[in-house]
Amino acid sequence: MEIVLGYPRLRSEFGRQPLLSDRPASLILDLPPDPSLAPCFLLKNPRDQGLQAARDMSEHQVNTERFESDSCGINHVEGGWPKDVNPQEMEQTIRFRKKVEKDESYVNSLLQLGG
Fold this sequence. Notes:
By secondary structure, this protein is mainly α. Helix content is about 20%, strand content about 0%. The chain contains two helices and no strands.
């Protein structure tokens, strides 16, 4: 059985592509410092420190035994009837259902599943 992940968004809903181009840098705003605000700030010596928000993790590879699997499906239109019962004939299907419902193992399995 194949597992497929469908993406429900249409291509038109992704938005437009950005149009980027090379051009020289340009100055948009030149704001000189305000000397009256200097007492509000503290002068510190610069220092280098590494910061990591997540724990260190490592990758590990292992050779395992091969497992071969097949993808197959079943057509459930027939309902899993025995070969001697024609699912198209209503009389045969009703007769088979009555026969199975009288079986004691069927009743026990229904009670276990219901609980």
